[in-house]
Each structure stands twice: as structure tokens, then as C-alpha cells.
């Protein structure tokens, strides 16, 4: 799972890309993440026909704060739409790029969240994640990642069916990002920083939240416990997320568990 | 008439016959006072009412907010097909919504979500799932004396009058799609498509001239979904809710089996094939209101069952999975035959569990593989 050393903010450039995927690695696992975005993974069942670029920042841990890394990555990106992939070098399912682009066709102010999963439990390490990946031949069918994943137990209150789900993988427009530039970045970890950014974007009156229920970001590095603020308040001002995408195969049990977490007890039998 | 100046983007075609109260309710749920996030410039409602002893009349549209067209039709036949085609001729939108049964009330996000999907994909087919008001399918309820009066009381008892999502709490999935959103759907009672795609499949085929149109609605849905270039989207947070009105297939009828057989035979005469649900993978779109969560839960449970069953047979879950190109209809037909044989042999469906983690799912999958080996060595 090691890769060649890569300078910070590496570009895989297209002219005038529709989307910039900004990957903040921090460790040598990012190249697998990059492969999950830029390789054959993003093709079925309909090819992504618009050009998109992948920008990787693999700064060594501790050389920059999470917020600085995010800002640097976004600054290096060319597109007006950013898909931010942070913390734990997640591997993505095959239609994340496609559905993200579709969400922005509905609203140029979309905020798209990809649900988080873990490839290892918090007591294990990257070696276990590597073994899990080897076991499922994920480049052939990325949805098999659901087969070996566990839900993100660090934040049990989070759910794709509640507003503002905490995730380390979200997409937004550069225009909206610039509007909230000074309203986030007080926390330390990438996960928390991404969550803060997501909340700030949600607070803009014109943004529209989306979630991709059949897709996932599968983390190879067990995350530290989140230091984030309390769960999103259930106030009258929240906007429910728009679900977008197909939910097939191994993703269905994850969805069902998620729904069950939101149902009153008598309904779950 | 589509493409005319000031034409709305979408025309919703609604057919009514002998259902004045129900049609009035349906049209209210299509008004801009009820539908959220859309304006009358974006869509119109085209109503064609076939003559009957219980007509609604054009005057019922007065006071409804939105853009409406109305025609009263002196229909001599018993099928809604000609009325549907008349409505299409009146429609001005580039996209059409088809509601062959005017007794279907809608949830408040149907129109906005359909328009949003067309922003993603102009060749989308947008389908809602059909429900029956009442705790059981109305065919069964009518055996116990359920009727329009009971239904009126049911609707009146809903809290938050005007919040149409609360209808999920007093309704059940209709028997035509009992498994929800993650199974192939047999029909949609409120389906949207680009007008050119609807015309490409022949619109409402008037050879379906039986009472209620027979399986006309199922035929339209299948033909639209099976066009090679269309993508199927479903709206899991929305729905159409059938009001009791003594319809042909939605009430108890001693001759129902005979009637259904005649409908099937007509389909085979018209299309030259046996009817089955189209099996294109659905894309979801939309928000999930709390009242719809149990239906989503039920759909996920049934979806897991289907997925185990198909993968245990080494069959693709959807016909357009990459291993089965949609240019191979003979393979798709073969899969359907094998699935039916498998179930006819008495094989059980796996029991759903509340929390299916990867280990549990793996065990269930292994179990199905063992069953599969026993059945087909």
C-alpha cells in the first residue's frame, strides 16, 4: 500500500475541469484513494463523460493544520466545484463523481455528503484495512467495499437521514466556499474541520444539501474520536437532505440500519 | 403544442371518470397552493373528464391556484386511452406527467422533484410509488364495508391539515408494488417523462379498449422504462394515494380473476409478449419526510431479500447491471424464468433482521448459496 513520494498538491490536470477532487492524505495511503477516484472505478454503469481533475496534498502530519490543508487543497484546485476527500485516505464507491456532478446540475449551490464507513475497527490499523481490500477485489466492483466495512461507530448519532451528517467527504461550490471562508477552521482534526465547513455551508440560505445513500467513503486509517460540536439541532430551520443515486447490493443493509436508527421502536420489528 | 411561447416546462395529464369528489381532491394536491417549491409558470394541469353520472365539471377548478386546462369528453367507450391522448394533444409542456386515474392524491414534493430530475437527465422516467388509503389494500377493505365515507373520516382525522406527507401514516403499499422501491415496479400511477419519449412509445395505445383501459397504465410504464436511453428515477419520499371510488381493479369484485386474465391476454395480443415488470436499476431522488421512513424501511428489507435471492443464483440484481447488457433481452427473460422456477420449488425467502452487518450479511449469503446448490446441482 505504499506509493512513490509525491509533492504536495499534485495535479492530474484536465483543461477546464468540471470538478476538482481534492484529496488530503497526510499519509502514504492517498494513492489508493486517488485510484478509486480516477481509475476504472468511476465508470459503471454510465461513464463520467465530463473532465475532472484530482488534486492530492500529502503533507506530512503536523506540518499544517487541518484547516490550512483544506484551504491549500482548494486553492490548488481549478474547477468551480470541489469534492473534498479528507482524513483516513478513504476509498470511494464507483459513482461518487457521477452523482456529485448530477447534484450540481440540480443546484449550483449543492452541498453533497458521502456517508463515512470504516475499513477497520478503531483498534486496528492500516494493515487490517489492506487485508480487507485485498480480500474483495474492490477495483473490479467498488460496491464490495460495503462487504468489509463497519459503520462509523465514533458518531452513532449521525445518520444520512438527519441534517448535517458528519462526513469527511463532501462537495461544494467554490463560490459558496469563499462566502464562508472565515466561519470555520477552529478545530484540529480533518474530520472536524470538514464538518465545520459543511455546517457553515449549510447555514447559507441558498445552499441545498444532498446525500448519496448508495455510495460511501471507506477509511483505511482508523480515525480519532471526533472533537466536533454537538449533533445538528433539530430546529425548524434545517433542510432535509435530498437523496440521490442508486442503492444496490451491499449498500442496502447499511441503509436499512440507518433508517432503523431514525425510526421509533414500535416500527422496527 | 409543446414549445409554444410561455409554455410551462411540465404538463400533468389527469383523467377523471365518475369520481367528482376524488378528482377534486387530486386536483387540489396538484395546485400551487399545495405543491411546494414550484410556480404556475413551471407546470400546468390538463384535466380530461369522461362523461358520467357523477361529473366534477369545470367550475370545480375555480379557486384552485395554478394553471389548469379542462375538457369534458363525451366518451362512448370504457377505456381512458382516448381521453389520455386528448390530454396530450392539449398539453404544452416539454415533459408530461401521466395520471390515468384521477383518484390519486399526491404528496407536496412530487412536481418539484420531477422537475429537478429533468434538470439532471432529460431522458429520465420519474416514477412515484402507489399507495392505498387505509391500512389494507382497498380490494380487501371493501369486503369489510370500507367505502368513501370511511375514507373521508380517515382523511379528516389527519393532523396538520395540508401536510400531505401525513398520508403515509394512514396508507399501505398497493398490491401492484407490494415490495417498495428496491424491487422492480409493475406500474406507477403518477409517472413523468419527456414528451418525445412518451410519443416514441406510442402514448396511450387505444387498442387497450377494455374497462378502465385494462393494463394500459402498466404498458405505458414498461414501455417508457425499457426505452434503451431512459434512466429510471423513483421518488422515495413522495407517493400517490388512491382514494376509494369503486374503480375496476381497486375494489372487491367476484369476477376480478377473470377480468385480470382478459387484461393479460389483451396485453399479449397488443405487445406479443408476456407482461413483466421492467427491471432497470432505479435511481433515488428526493427528501424523506419522517412519515415515509417506515415505507423506506420496508423497501430496504425487501430489497435485501431480493438482493440475496438474485446473487445466490449468480444473477444480476438489475437487468442493466454491467454483466447483462440490455441488448440481450433473451438473457433477461431467462433470468426471470429461473427466478420463478426457484420460488415455485418452495424455497423460502430469507428472514430480514433489524441490523444486518457485514458478518450477518455474509452468513445469509452463504446460506443462500447452499440452498442454491441443493436446488440446482
Features:
heterodimer; A: 269 residues; alpha/beta; eight-stranded mixed β-sheet; four-stranded mixed β-sheet; 12 strands; globular; disordered N terminus; B: 377 residues; 15% strand
Summarize the structure.
The complex is a heterodimer of chains A (269) and B (377). Chain A has 269 residues and is of the alpha/beta class.
How would you describe this structure to a colleague?
Chain A has 269 residues and is of the alpha/beta class. Chain A is 29% helix and 17% strand. Chain A has helices at 30-38, 66-76, 96-106, 126-136, 145-148, 174-179, 190-203, 251-262, and strands at residues 10-12, 19-24, 52-57, 81-85, 91-92, 110-113, 116-118, 150-151, 169-173, 208-211, 217-219, 242-245. Chain A is globular, with a radius of gyration of 17 Å. Chain B has 377 residues and is an alpha/beta fold. Chain B contains 11 helices and 12 strands. Chain B has an 8-stranded mixed beta sheet with strand order 3-2-1-4-9-6-10-12, sandwiched between helices. A 4-stranded mixed beta sheet of chain B has the order 5-11-7-8. Chains A and B meet through helix 3, helix 5, strand 12 and helix 8 of A and helix 3, strand 12, helix 9 and helix 11 of B.
What is the overall shape of chain A?
Answer: globular
Strand content of chain A: 15-25%
Helix count of chain A equals 8
- What fraction of residues of chain B sit in β-strands? 5-15%
Largest sheet of chain B: 8 strands, mixed
Report the span from N to C terminus of chain A: 43 Å
Amino acid at each position: 500500500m505504499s506509493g512513490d513520494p509525491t509533492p504536495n498538491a499534485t495535479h492530474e490536470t484536465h483543461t477546464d475541469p468540471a470538478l476538482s477532487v481534492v484529496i488530503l492524505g497526510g499519509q502514504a495511503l492517498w494513492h489508493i484513494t486517488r485510484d478509486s477516484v480516477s481509475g476504472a472505478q468511476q465508470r459503471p454503469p454510465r461513464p463520467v463523460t465530463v473532465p475532472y481533475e484530482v488534486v492530492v496534498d500529502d503533507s506530512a502530519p503536523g506540518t499544517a493544520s487541518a484547516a490550512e490543508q483544506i484551504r491549500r487543497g482548494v486553492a490548488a484546485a481549478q474547477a468551480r466545484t470541489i469534492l473534498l476527500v479528507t482524513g483516513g485516505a478513504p476509498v470511494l464507491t464507483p459513482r461518487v463523481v457521477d452523482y456529485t456532478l448530477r447534484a450540481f446540475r440540480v443546484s449550483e449551490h449543492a452541498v453533497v455528503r458521502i456517508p463515512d464507513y470504516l475499513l477497520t475497527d478503531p483498534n486496528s490499523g492500516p494493515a487490517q484495512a489492506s487485508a480487507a481490500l485485498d480480500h474483495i477485489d474492490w477495483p473490479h466492483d467498488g460496491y464490495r467495499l460495503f462487504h468489509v466495512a463497519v459503520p462509523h461507530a465514533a458518531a452513532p448519532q449521525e445518520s444520512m437521514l438527519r441534517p448535517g451528517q458528519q462526513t469527511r467527504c463532501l462537495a461544494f461550490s467554490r463560490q459558496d466556499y469563499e462566502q464562508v471562508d472565515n466561519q470555520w477552521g477552529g478545530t484540529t482534526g480533518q474530520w472536524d474541520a470538514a464538518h465545520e465547513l459543511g455546517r457553515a455551508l449549510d447555514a447559507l440560505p441558498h445552499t441545498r444539501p444532498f446525500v448519496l445513500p448508495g455510495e460511501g467513503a471507506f477509511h483505511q486509517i482508523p480515525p480519532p474520536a471526533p472533537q466536533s460540536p454537538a449533533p445538528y439541532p433539530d430546529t425548524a430551520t434545517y433542510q432535509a437532505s435530498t437523496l440521490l443515486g442508486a442503492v444496490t447490493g451491499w449498500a442496502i443493509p447499511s441503509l436499512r440500519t440507518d433508517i432503523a436508527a431514525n425510526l421509533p421502536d414500535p416500527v422496527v420489528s | 403544442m409543446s414549445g409554444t411561447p410561455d409554455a410551462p416546462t411540465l404538463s400533468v395529464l389527469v383523467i377523471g371518470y365518475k369520481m367528482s369528489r376524488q378528482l377534486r381532491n387530486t386536483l387540489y394536491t396538484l395546485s400551487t397552493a399545495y405543491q411546494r417549491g414550484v410556480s404556475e409558470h413551471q407546470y400546468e394541469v390538463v384535466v380530461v373528464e369522461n362523461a358520467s353520472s357523477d361529473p366534477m365539471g369545470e367550475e370545480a377548478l375555480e379557486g384552485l391556484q395554478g394553471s389548469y386546462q379542462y375538457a369534458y369528453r363525451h366518451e362512448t367507450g370504457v377505456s381512458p386511452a382516448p381521453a389520455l391522448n386528448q390530454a396530450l394533444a392539449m398539453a404544452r409542456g416539454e415533459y408530461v406527467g401521466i395520471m390515468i386515474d384521477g383518484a390519486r392524491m399526491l404528496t407536496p414534493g412530487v412536481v418539484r422533484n420531477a422537475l429537478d430530475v429533468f434538470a439532471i437527465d432529460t431522458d429520465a422516467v420519474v416514477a412515484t410509488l402507489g399507495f392505498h388509503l387505509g391500512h389494507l389494500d382497498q380490494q380487501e377493505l371493501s369486503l369489510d364495508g370500507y367505502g368513501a365515507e370511511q375514507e373521508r373520516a380517515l382523511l379528516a382525522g389527519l393532523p396538520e391539515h395540508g401536510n400531505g406527507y401525513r398520508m403515509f401514516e394512514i396508507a399501505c403499499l398497493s398490491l401492484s408494488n407490494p415490495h417498495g422501491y428496491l424491487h422492480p415496479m409493475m406500474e406507477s400511477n403518477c409517472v413523468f417523462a419527456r414528451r418525445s419519449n412518451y410519443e416514441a412509445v406510442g402514448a396511450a395505445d387505444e387498442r387497450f379498449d377494455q374497462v378502465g383501459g385494462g393494463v394500459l397504465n402498466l404498458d405505458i410504464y414498461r414501455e417508457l422504462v425499457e426505452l434503451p436511453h431512459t434512466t429510471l428515477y423513483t421518488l422515495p419520499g413522495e407517493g400517490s394515494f388512491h382514494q376509494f371510488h369503486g374503480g375496476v381493479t381497486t375494489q372487491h369484485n367476484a369476477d376480478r380473476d377473470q377480468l385480470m386474465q382478459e387484461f393479460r391476454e389483451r396485453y399479449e395480443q397488443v405487445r406479443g409478449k408476456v407482461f413483466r415488470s421492467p427491471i432497470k436499476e432505479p435511481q433515488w431522488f428526493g427528501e424523506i419526510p419522517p412519515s415515509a421512513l417506515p415505507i423506506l424501511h420496508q423497501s430496504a428489507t425487501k430489497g435485501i431479500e431480493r438482493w440475496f435471492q438474485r446473487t445466490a443464483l449468480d444473477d444480476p440484481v438489475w437487468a442493466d447491471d454491467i454483466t447483462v447488457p440490455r441488448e440481450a433481452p433473451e438473457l433477461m427473460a431467462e433470468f426471470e424464468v429461473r427466478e420463478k422456477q426457484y420460488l415455485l420449488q418452495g424455497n423460502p425467502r430469507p428472514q430480514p433482521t433489524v441490523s444486518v452487518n457485514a458478518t450477518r450479511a455474509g452468513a445469509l449469503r452463504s446460506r443462500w448459496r447452499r440452498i442454491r446448490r441443493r436446488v440446482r446441482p
